[in-house]
């Protein structure tokens, strides 16, 4: 008689209880979960904004390293390229890269009309990489982050082909690169394609961004040939950059933006991994700069500013693939070798008479290759950084685990990307040469592309090239330098 | 007999239960709520810091677009204007704009002594716009975000009046603008005033910031008259900017800062809306740049760097009002028309002989008007973006819903603001003309404002204007350009 | 008979209940707690990235304020110094500064192998300052934030010793400063050392960073002596900076980065304190700029751009120690006095014939001392800003509470740091003089350090110093200025 009500009570309490717990489970959890998405999103957006700013860095770096008569041309290329890539990558590129598709290419989500897999649209929040639901942040944020990467790849090309390429050819090539070539490689490595399946790892794009840009730059620079007067039958003429102040500014802007480039690539705001990436990125850049300083000091007995800037950038490119996977010591070694390679590779490309006015090849191509191999050498293995699931992250590197396989996989990926990008960009450059012509006339090159291609001068009040006395000035310059006229009192 | 204890038990459990649930409700909610405030605050602060950096963007853009003999003057204006606005807007402007008041003006909270409606001071967290408690972030953060906007409005003026205005007049005008004129318009549209009530929408300030600055720039440039030698009886003399490298840098800094300008305006870190705003902002800037490139290419057969920079900026100004309310396609159309307008409006103002050295009017005034109208044309309607409450957000735009009313409301607002700002700034400029004089002497203008107003030169080692050979140089310049002297080997 | 089951029921419910509440307590709390760490970490990282960008600010500021013939040298110093400091501070400096140790020095955690006290490694989350567990963010993030501060201290020196120091000497001195001298002072004040125990407060480093850099700069500038031709027996020759556009850019980049410098120092993302710091920082910078404008205007009848830039920077240095502890009014007064001191101190150092090409001493040394004293004058006392525990934060300032003791403690700290840094840097400079020599030859100084130390020119196309006509130009310059040749039509 006393048991029934109690039993009823128990059942009643149990039901209420479960409902309440369920409610309690939902309410407090849903709030933090959406907060996690919020934090992830603003982190990725801010990182992407930093990467966007790298456009200014490239513009200043490249312009300063070239002659003043081509400054307007380089500046124009660097501004318009991002506009062009924005539209192309939005309409087509992103779909080919991250859309649902096969192992070679994506074919859905054109014009960003894809499925938004973020929890904001009631999809499950994953927060880990996955070929489909690779982050919980909104699609618009994913796209913008990937867009600024695509812009970087296109911008790398502009430096190597500077001072002689026609504006129309470059404009069109940027579109082709961001429409098809870059997205395809990106799909293979980041979009669930065959290189990702194979176990090839490239965290932030030493290969996807920098080598792709580098190979395109190499084929362009090679096809275009060197600038008029750059090489003599037995030697070379250095054509100095016209403004090392803005080049240095550009280099430091790139270093600044690179923190976003590498740390945003996790697509989540994981405190441990973000902090680690920023640490390794900075250590590698620093040792790259120091390596280039020391080596240029030893070789030429004077530390070279341009080498130091490019050394830092080479350190940054080199750590890009492995920033999340290596130790501090690993980062230091990777950066040092990257900076060293940048100095020596610059000489090598000169030997090959491939004229690269800003040093894009030693930095982005060589650094990108080295950084990708370095993952196979220095990775601490999966399951170390707690944000990795057990099956995620590259295998223990050769130098730590003794297994050469990870290195071979990385090299395989590098070779495949090299072959594809070289051939496809060569084909593209050839087509552009047939349609528009690639290179400006020698007369336009002598005058400078600013006047011939844009009808503007960057520094009209200071242009010495239009002064008849200029030749006189230069002829007496060496003598004057020896006499060291002091100008302290002006 | 068996029922009473059970009943007591039920009651006891019920009481404990409620207390516990209440406690459970409070504890886990309060933590995420304060975390939400934290995330909102750091997001808004970081966006505001990006907008602050636009001061550097304006400084570089305007300086590079002017002559080197006025560089120090423009740089000084751009630095000091933010200092002046900081103090004026803190003391008075913010109170007039956001303080409790009537439909025309606020009149409380001077010296930032207002009620802090953030949850940190025990007020309810709203997180949505509201004329009073329009965000949950601390008052200091709201103020700083609004301050950098006020600074932008004042800075816009400096470009249009450059190379001839007296420093003292500009200094004082900046104070007047940020003390009274800008805050009053801001109150009408963002501070609960009559335009806001009327249904006028301007998300990030195409009207509040850019048109206000633009009208003030127009009256100033008109009253001052053109620079000496700018116009001939039947034609014009182009006065080229002295350094397009820093102008380009300035343009890219502005683009960079604009992400904060637009995305921070929600005053909350909503992942969906922040991502959407950054996407639309970038698409509009990109199409603005491409539009200006294509149109200047078609008209002059050469793509113009200055047009491309101003096209991108016009795209940015144009999307500012509607960045949160339009689709990607909408953003692309808005930006394209904005960039196109920038090219044609520059010609129009020249026809009117309104001398605007940096193109502030085509970008900020025309772009601001167009962007504000565009909200009435392209808005997707309220209740679409989930952060809007049902009654919030502009009505469905004319091109999507067919109702012309939203467009008419936007135009009404534009006209009212135009009338008020034109008259009040004209009055202010007149008063300043009476008190100090507005314009420097013709002699000072010829010498350059750097020496006459500041006693400094920006580039003392390179100043060609002080060289007697300069005229000689310029007289032979055209001939030399045709002969294309190569300087490759120097 | 009816009671037992009910009793059992009660016990059962109680047990389940407790378990559930415990679970409910754990789950929703742990998520926000880790989220709090996440938000703290990304805030500190983003602030640190902003501070990193100050390297670009210093590079542009200093380069523009010096002569073009030394531009490459200054740029190189500013890039390489951060690379050197990154490695030195990682290997040794951070351990001496924040490692477990005694009241004078830390001696654990070399090569960043210290205990990570963040909750991510199962340590308790504190979120308040504490000599050991001073923040809940990961060790890597703490380190990076502290690293960019160490880099700032080293960079300050480069400006004051510019245009005459040998590159090797500066390179080595940077290493010494970041290896030992800076970390020791840092340990005393921020690492649990004797000044911290004594009640000396310096929130973001007016003393730790700016005065330390300032004293090192003073001893260096004094030992090196002035540049050749800088002072006459009875007077001085002004050596104008070669590019005030990039100097202004540098100044604005520094202002931009300073928001991270000051607001990140709480090491947590507290919305109230972060907003407050950014407000006070900006007000102080603004009044510093306005003060310098007004005072230079009154003294020379022309507002000086270089004074305004240095005034803003002095305002920033001055608020650095007290940004979290003072009111808006306090910040305005501190900044005004800081900006005023910057103008007058520049004259004073000139009287003392200490040649400081960029004004590092008036800004960083004088501003740093004044800002540190200002904490003792203007602090609102502990327990006001809610993030302070009762025993945290400086005592009520003299001007608010009438107790002179806080001022005396601050002065004691300043004197101790002055003595230590002066002596240790003097010793270091002396050792470097013996080993390498400190100063370049007079011939190298006349030629410029760019050619003598680096074999490069910053602007090879524009270098007028190598032109024989240059002296002619300068001799006729004054006459020409009076005749005001117009160049409007070129």
From TrEMBL, chains A, B, C:
NCBIfam families the record matches: amt
Annotated compartments: Cell membrane; Membrane
GO annotation (BP), single: ammonium homeostasis
Topological type in the membrane: Multi-pass membrane protein
Protein name, UniProt field: Ammonium transporter
Entries under Pfam families matching the protein: Ammonium_transp
Gene Ontology annotations for the cellular component aspect, listed alphabetically: plasma membrane
Lineage of source species: Bacteria, Bacillati, Cyanobacteriota, Adonisia, Adonisia turfae
A GO term, aspect molecular function: ammonium channel activity
Domain Ammonium transporter AmtB-like, chain residue ranges per copy: 43-459
């Amino acid at each position: 008689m006393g048991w029934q009500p109690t039993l009823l009570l128990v059942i009643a309490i149990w039901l209420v209880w479960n409902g309440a717990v369920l409610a309690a489970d939902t309410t407090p959890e849903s709030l933090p979960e959406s907060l996690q998405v919020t934090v992830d999103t603003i982190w990725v957006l801010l990182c992407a904004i930093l990467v966007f700013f790298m456009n200014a860095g490239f513009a200043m770096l490249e312009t300063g390293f070239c002659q003043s008569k081509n400054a307007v041309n380089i500046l124009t290329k660097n501004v318009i390229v991002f506009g062009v890539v924005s539209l192309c990558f939005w309409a087509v590129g992103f779909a080919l890269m991250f859309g649902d598709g096969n192992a070679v290419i994506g074919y859905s989500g054109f014009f960003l009309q894809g499925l938004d897999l973020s929890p904001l649209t009631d999809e499950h929040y994953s927060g880990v990489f996955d070929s489909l639901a690779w982050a919980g942040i909104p699609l618009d944020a994913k796209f913008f982050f990937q867009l600024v990467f695509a812009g970087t790849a296109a911008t790398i090309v502009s430096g190597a082909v500077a001072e002689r390429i026609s504006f129309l050819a470059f404009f069109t090539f940027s579109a082709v690169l961001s429409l098809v070539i870059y997205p395809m490689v990106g799909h293979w490595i980041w979009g669930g394609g065959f290189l990702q399946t194979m176990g090839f790892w490239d965290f932030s794009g030493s290969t996807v961004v920098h080598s792709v840009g580098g190979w395109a730059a190499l084929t362009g620079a090679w096809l275009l040939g060197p600038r008029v007067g750059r090489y003599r039958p037995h030697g070379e003429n250095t054509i100095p950059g016209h403004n090392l102040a803005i080049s240095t500014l550009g280099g430091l802007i790139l270093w600044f933006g690179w923190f976003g480039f590498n740390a945003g690539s996790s697509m989540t705001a994981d405190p441990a991994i973000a902090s680690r990436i920023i640490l390794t990125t900075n250590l590698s850049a620093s040792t790259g700069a120091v390596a280039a300083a020391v080596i240029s000091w030893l070789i030429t007995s004077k530390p070279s500013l341009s080498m130091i800037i490019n050394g830092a950038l080479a350190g940054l490119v080199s750590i890009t693939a492995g920033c999340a996977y290596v130790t501090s010591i690993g980062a230091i070694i990777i950066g040092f070798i990257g900076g060293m390679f940048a100095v020596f590779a610059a000489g090598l490309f000169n030997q090959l008479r491939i004229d690269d006015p800003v040093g894009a090849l030693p930095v982005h191509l060589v650094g990108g290759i080295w950084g990708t191999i370095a993952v196979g050498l220095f990775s601490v293995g999966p399951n170390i950084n707690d944000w990795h699931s057990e099956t995620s992250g590259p295998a223990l590197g050769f130098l730590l685990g003794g297994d050469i396989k990870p290195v071979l996989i990385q090299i395989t990926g590098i070779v495949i990307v090299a072959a594809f990008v070289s051939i496809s960009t060569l084909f593209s450059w050839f087509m552009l040469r047939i349609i528009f012509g690639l290179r400006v006339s020698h007369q336009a090159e002598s005058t400078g592309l600013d006047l011939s291609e844009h009808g503007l001068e960057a520094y009209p009040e200071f242009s010495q090239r239009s002064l008849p006395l200029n030749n006189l000035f230069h002829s007496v310059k060496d003598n004057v330098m020896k006499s060291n006229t002091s100008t302290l009192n002006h």
